[in-house]
Task: structure prediction
Amino acid sequence: MQTPIQTTKIRLDKWLWAARFFKTRRLATEAVTRNKVHLNQQRTKPAKEIKMSDQLTIRTGYIERTVIVQGLSKQRRPASEAVLLYKETPKSIKENEKAAELRRQTGALRQPRMGRPTKKERRTIEKFLNTTDNA
Result:
């Protein structure tokens, strides 16, 4: 396994893309401009240069991660190498596990057969409505 290409300065959006938080640089740029990414607890711009030991808070969907920058790379490498660029804080890991468990529990509480009826159920409803109209 190769180590990531080290550099001294890199744009935030490029690092987010290289660390595989976003699939494209455009998505990373949009996330930063929409305040989904904070650098050291402050709003930032996509072109902001980051350095080692900076703290990033990255929100993607339901997940909010707090990571410490441990490496800088201008190239997008395999996922096994991308995880070497950062370290997620223990507090962030614990909160994400708690949130995931909550989402699982609320999904289990959902009543079965809620939502739109299936095709078979629609046919049964139509048949019932047609028989009551004729009576």
Observations:
- The mean pLDDT is 87.
